[in-house]
Amino acid sequence: MGLRVKSWNHPSIFIPKQLFRPSHSLRRLPSSLHSPSLPTHRKPFARALATAAPPKMVKAIRVHQLGGPEVLKWEDVEIGEPGEGEIRVKNKAIGLNFIDVYFRKGVYKAPSMPFTPGMEAVGEVVAVGPGLTGREVGDIVAYAGNPMGSYAEEQILPANKVVPVPSSISPVIAASVMLKGMTAQFLVRRCFKVEPGHTVLVHAAAGGVGSLLCQWANALGATVIGTVSSREKAAQAKEDGCHHVINYKEEDFVLHVKDITSGTGVDVVYDSVGKDTFQGSLACLKTRGYMVSFGQSSGTVDPVPLSALAPKALFLTRPSLMLYTETRDELLETAGEVFANIASGVLRVRVNHTYHLSDAAQAHADLESRKTSGSVVLIP
Ligand SMILES: NC(=O)c1ccc[n+]([C@@H]2O[C@H](COP(=O)([O-])OP(=O)(O)OC[C@H]3O[C@@H](n4cnc5c(N)ncnc54)[C@H](OP(=O)(O)O)[C@@H]3O)[C@@H](O)[C@H]2O)c1
């Protein structure tokens, strides 16, 4: 058995199912052991195990109070041994995502305080929990999503949340594409299914998700319109498959989109910018168009009355990757398609910025001030 990954204008790629089925025999964790990745919050059973041996310390970024990038502190933290259904992973590369900024600022509520941010990493398995089969020390695995805590040299993860990384893909590439690439996958393949003949509008087209989204939508046969804030980002968006690029800092993107589509409007808007673009995005849609509001880099969108959708019978959704990779099968298929598209050349991953993990504050400051493009990776 294997996973046949459809790849539109490329032959489909076969990924052996064993590669993606490591934890089929995993037992579910008792809920009392579902704990954040670092051990300070672990429950009595895990604590008892930890007292048997001297505590192992690793370096991690910790947030003790919400705020600007300066609240990201480089500290020693204790890490225990993996419990049932868990693995300990030594991280090789950690993906930086805008969601990390939301948690740091308190736009989204972290599950504990203090906490270690980060929702994406690639690393080597260095220990497996008792009774776990299908996962071995030395495996290179990737994860994206919950539990939070990837800004650390090592972390403990539920084994059923990780996927194996094909040996042809380096840890840095995998860490820059796991969360962002899976987001692009669910957006163009499942949330609104892009097909040849569609016209799509992608905001922040040169960003981490935006770059992959434009390449993928182009490969699916759509006409892609991208918005960006600078000339350099415009050049990148063009290379990434945008047929039209608009500098939305200097020009009215609604007028441009009307022009480009001869007044018809676009089939779908993928809007991750939020507050600053939401209303304009609605105005860019054709009758019965899809408004996919999947982020708020510029701020939270104001409440939308149903009546705002009525004049064009619009569809509105506010999706999240977590809810599109809820089951193990969804996770494996989504990651499998991303890795297959890298292997076949449909997706080119732009690792435009790398920082040492201890410099996470600088990386956050650069991401928030729109200085970055493509993916940003932290190296422990
Ligand atoms: N719903 C989900 O499941 C999901 C999953 C992943 C990501 N996301 C969302 O997707 C978006 C992109 O994430 P990413 O990690 O790839 O980040 P990113 O796109 O690399 O960075 C954000 C970009 O947004 C643009 N932007 C516009 N106004 C901004 C402002 N006021 N402040 C900061 N940036 C602004 C900037 O591009 P310009 O300079 O070109 O304007 C900036 O580079 C985020 O909103 C994130 O929350 C959602």
The chain-level mean pLDDT equals 89
What fold name goes in the CATH topology slot of the largest domain? Quinone Oxidoreductase, Chain A, domain 1
Give the helices and strands as they follow along the chain: EEHHEEEHEEEEHEHEHEHEHEEHHEHE
Annotated CATH homologous superfamily of the largest domain = Medium-chain alcohol dehydrogenases, catalytic domain
In DSSP terms (H or I, runs of 4 or more residues), the helix count works out at 11
According to DSSP, the number of beta strands is: 17
Shape: globular
GO molecular function, one term: NADPH binding
Protein name: Probable quinone oxidoreductase
InterPro entries: ADH-like_C, ADH-like_N, ER, GroES-like_sf, NAD(P)-bd_dom_sf, QOR-like
Organism: Manihot esculenta (Cassava)
